[in-house]
């Protein structure tokens, strides 16, 4: 199945020689993946960095999530170590010890406090980490740290991803770079969405936390491939102040152009990474942005958008490029939100398909929009202020094939 | 794809000569289906019957739902008229008039008040009913009313169903018969779950309402094929007191053996119809009952069961007969309910797959259970009193094919 790629992201992610001042990184092989591919990454900040993180709300978070969440709460980090191949989930007390041991090994190599080291693991669950290999991997990664190795990092964290995901941008004199892996949370044994963002901006942890929440809400948290949540999802933002200037505070978000410029770059980066994750979803041939407008409030808008985005009927219609407004109406009305059909407008691309609950007869034109690689669906449900956007993917034969035939 | 049928239901539904004393029914052709198949059914009670109904919670209910809901609130009905082929949904004021006109036409034919006539429609949405054909259909159905024509009724209400669904039982001297159509709510344009139950029991509307809610909760309302809700779903129970005896009251449910025997027959009938609907789901090769035990309360149990039942990953594993406990753990933990992995047991059939969060190594044996037509999954999450059961189906190539290629 030919998989077309959103050209803009492709261009950015292929740019070589990317670096964020004050960060050195590495990706190495330590034998966790049967394929023998790169499987351990280290991100190190030469200066103590402020940090913010967002973590899975799954009832069974992996040991690395527990360790990294504590570090994020303290707001300071010097390094992140990531392994792919084994998730260190459902591994009990041994798993907790191993996650902590990874922070100690990194701390010793880099001569930094282990409590300022974050750890992330992704891969199969219910399997203990081979700590001898992990230790060797950390040792060799520490030796290979270099400013320009982000591409290697993006490859080391892959599991079932078909390609690395890296976005880099510059805004208001600061550099922001993000790598991500996973495809939503679509495969519980080899799954997980991980995203690591590094910047040389000077900012307090509280600023980073607020900015990260604002950025992730409409991007990575608005991406659904099959409605699944992983035990290990994590988004981490490190900022080492290398660019200088006074540290941005939470209060700056409302008034400082420098803060707003960073927020905008961060949101844009997260959105581009979310698009890359969606396109790399299992069996995906097409993605759709579901924008809901005019709801009573943002929560109602979000419920309607997610109801459409997770509808198996909408997702199969997307695969078939069928401008089937009946399925959108059905899914929107089933969201558990009070709606009036008489004030419902649906546009595909900019083509009106339904206006005031009445079909416009423009199925042919709308069908052309449905055949695009990225389909824009706009659902206006009334005149309220509530808006939401959710990114979703099509449901295809290949999704079923990959997941019905996949064996742990 | 070979579709195996749950033998017990098959046997029951093929029994000929079924009747419920005091009810006469008919199914006729009036030209609503392109195929020319039976498309209009009439159920008439010779005596005024007590009635209870449960209706879709969709934000855009069809006009027939609005009309029948009012009738159910009043608690008395003489007849139900059902057409298949056109759903009379998203049809505005004309649709409302047409639904009411159907009750008047039946009222005139049967010489009963039109407000005691219920109406249901299923089929394409956004299309007006051809009332001349409907009127001719009602006229001819009224002429053909007969006690033994329930099989014809079950065929007249079909849309994309591949076979009729009829269950009949006798309990404590009363007869209970149910017909149903639809396959969950899996196709918004030709979809809808309709279920009509008739009994000769003597009972007050309040008793019927309570008994119906108890029966539908763990059966028809616990069936999910793709998480979709239709604009026209309806379950109606008519009881004409032909069997005699004092009318059962709501208070009897707690103490009268006669009431409990009826409740048990009603629940069993609804569960058997739910199984039939599940097996006739689009592309379905296998169904699974997800039983959750030991939750803090029934609501938590239901959330965990539904999270597993609606998980695309679990549904594809079911198709592949893969005893993938990782996907069950993943989906259970993502339900938004506080759980502890250390107290999680998972059984497939009666084979333990996970005990206290630890794999038992019995994948082989569990795999044999997964290859059955009806798979029993038991998830014990703790020692609380909360229990729930949800019935689900596998997600197959054929589901994607039918829904990606289906055009309105």
Q: Largest interface, and how many residues on either side? A: A-B, 59 and 58 residues
Judging by the overall fold, what is the CATH architecture of the largest domain in chain A? 4-Layer Sandwich
CATH class division of the largest domain in chain A: Alpha Beta
Structural class of chain A: alpha+beta
The number of distinct helices of chain A, counting runs of at least 4 residues, comes to 12
What's the assembly state of these chains? homodimer
- For the residues shown, what is the average pLDDT of chain A? 88
The CATH superfamily of the largest domain in chain A appears as L-amino peptidase D-ALA esterase/amidase
Model description:
Two copies of one chain form a homodimer. In chain A, strands 1, 2, 3, 4, 5, 6, 7 and 9 form an eight-stranded mixed beta sheet that branches. In chain A, strands 8-15-10-14-11-12-13 form a seven-stranded mixed beta sheet. In chain A, helix 2 crosses helix 3 (92-110) and helix 8 crosses helix 10. The first copy, chain A, is built from twelve helices and 15 strands. The radius of gyration of chain A is 22 Å and the shape is globular. The two termini of chain A are 24 Å apart. Chain A folds into two domains: 7-279, L-amino peptidase D-ALA esterase/amidase (4-Layer Sandwich); 287-405, ArgJ beta chain, C-terminal domain (Ubiquitin-like (UB roll), Roll), CATH 3.10.20.340. Chain A is of the alpha+beta class and 408 residues long. In chain A, strand 11 and strand 12 form a beta hairpin. The first copy, chain A, has helices at 7-14, 63-74, 92-110, 131-144, 150-156, 205-216, 257-279, 298-309, 312-319, 325-333, 363-370, 397-405; strands at residues 23-28, 40-55, 76-86, 117-124, 165-171, 174-181, 194-199, 223-224, 234-239, 287-295, 345-348, 351-355, 358-359, 374-380, 386-393. Chains A and B meet through helix 9, helix 10 and helix 12 of A and helix 9, helix 10 and helix 12 of B.
């Amino acid at each position: 199945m030919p998989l077309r790629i959103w050209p803009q992201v492709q261009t950015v992610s292929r740019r070589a020689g990317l670096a964020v001042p004050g960060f050195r990184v590495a990706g190495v092989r330590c034998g966790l993946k049967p394929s023998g591919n790169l499987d351990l990454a280290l991100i190190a900040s030469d200066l103590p960095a402020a940090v913010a993180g967002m973590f899975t709300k799954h009832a069974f978070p992996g040991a690395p999530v527990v360790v990294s969440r504590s570090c994020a709460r303290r707001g300071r980090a010097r390094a992140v170590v990531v392994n792919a191949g084994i998730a260190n989930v459902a591994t009990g007390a041994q798993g907790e010890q191993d996650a902590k041991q990874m922070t100690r090994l990194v701390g010793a190599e880099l001569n930094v406090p282990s409590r300022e080291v974050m750890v992330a693991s992704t891969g199969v669950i219910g399997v203990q980490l081979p700590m001898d290999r992990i230790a060797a991997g950390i040792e060799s990664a520490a030796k290979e740290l270099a400013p320009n190795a982000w591409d290697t990092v993006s490859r080391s964290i892959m599991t079932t991803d078909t390609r690395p995901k890296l976005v880099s941008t510059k805004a208001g004199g600061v550099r922001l770079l993000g790598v991500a892996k996973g495809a939503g949370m679509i495969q519980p044994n080899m799954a997980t969405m991980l995203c690591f963002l590094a910047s040389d901006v000077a900012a307090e942890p509280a600023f980073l936390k607020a900015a990260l929440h604002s950025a992730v809400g409409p991007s990575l948290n608005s991406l659904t491939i099959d409605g699944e949540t992983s035990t290990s999802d994590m988004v981490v933002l490190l900022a080492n102040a290398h660019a200088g200037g006074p540290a941005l505070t939470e209060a700056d978000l409302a008034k400082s152009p420098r803060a707003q410029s960073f927020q905008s770059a961060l949101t844009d980066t997260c959105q581009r990474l979310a698009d890359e994750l969606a396109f790399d979803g299992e069996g995906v041939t097409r993605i759709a942005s579901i924008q809901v407008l005019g709801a009573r409030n943002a929560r109602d808008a979000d419920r309607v958008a997610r109801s459409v985005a997770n509808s198996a009927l909408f997702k199969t219609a997307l695969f078939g490029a069928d401008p089937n407004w009946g399925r959108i109406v059905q899914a929107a009305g089933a969201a558990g939100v009070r709606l009036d059909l008489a004030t419902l407008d649906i546009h595909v691309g900019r083509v009106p398909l339904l206006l005031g609950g009445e079909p416009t007869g423009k199925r042919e034109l709308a069908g052309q929009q449905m055949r695009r690689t990225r389909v824009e669906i706009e659902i206006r449900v009334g005149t309220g202020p509530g808006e939401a956007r959710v990114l979703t993917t099509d449901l295809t034969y290949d999704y079923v094939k990959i997941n019905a035939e996949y064996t742990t």
